[in-house]
Amino acid sequence: MAIIIDGREWAGKKREAAAFRTAALKKRGIVPCLAVILVGDNPASISYVNGKERALLEAGMKSRDIRLPADTAEEEILSLISGLNKDRLVHGILVQLPLPGHIQKDQVIAAIDPAKDVDGFHPVSAGNLILGRPGFIPCTPHGILVLLEEMKIPSAGAHVVVAGRSSIVGKPLANLLLKKEINATVTVCHTGSGDLGRYTRQADILVAAAGKAGLITADMVKEGAAVIDVGINRISDERSPKGYRLVGDVDFDAVAAKASYITPVPGGVGPMTIAMLLLNVVISAEAATEAATEIS
Question: What's the CA angle centered on 134, arms 182 and 267, to 5 degrees?
């Protein structure tokens, strides 16, 4: 039976570290601040933003909450970001995705100053990651690495199979795992891969990040593999007060009987994502403070 990786526990420790560093900055008169832009009234997005804002306040940071109607023009959003880029009291800018269909996501993300790109989605951040240069790392992939490290799941020489090639999880995670200090061999699977199980059964570490409930079944997992479930899917459940429950991309009970380690949904990777966001905001505030000190 697999050891269940408690993401809440490890996220709590990272949030404590973020709060400690925030307290140190406050003694110098600096309060880390994240500007969160939410366009429209997508219920899931509202929930995510509210969770991020609560975490910021608990860590002693500021959250600049900017909520716009769904029909807001792209030019207005770009102008808003331009102003936030120049605002020295703002250390991070986060645009909650998805955006309404008339807004070009890539244009909006590219407008953010890379020094404030705490989500790690800017093309400069992506390029730095690929080239192994310093820069912000997307929060979910970073959180996955932290879980592997904290649980002492060996990555050097391991074959990691990532199911999903999104720019938010799959691609940046693959590039992180390829870094020399991590030294994994990586296979990225996607909708064109054909027989997915042919690849997943080879994995020492399997990361499911495709966004499809129950995609990974027990017969697709090698005995003793570590399984990281990134999926967050809503399925109907009449017994739940909300009428639904959250599940991952992995058939949890069946796979847990075969794996060595497994993350639950909820309570696995999700809490790590917010924790790493807090650390990115602190890092940005520290860097801005040091830069200002050098100039003065």
Answer: 60
Contacts of 207 (CB under 8 A, 6+ apart): 144, 160, 161, 162, 163, 164, 169, 173, 228, 230
List, by residue number, the catalytic residues: 52, 96, 119
Question: What type of residue is 93?
Answer: I
Among 204, 272, 218, which Cα is nearest to 250's?
A: 218
Measured in residues, the chain has a length of: 296
pLDDT in tens, 20-72: 999 999 999 999 999 999 999 998 899 999 999 999 999 999 999 999 999 99
Q: How far apart are the first and last CA of the chain?
A: 58
Q: How do residues 178-205 score in pLDDT, each as one tens digit?
A: 999 999 999 999 999 999 999 999 999 9
Residue 170: pLDDT over 60: yes
Is residue 61 within 8 Å of residue 22, measured between CB atoms? yes
Residue 154 clears pLDDT 70, i.e. is over it: yes
Average pLDDT in the 255-265 region? 98
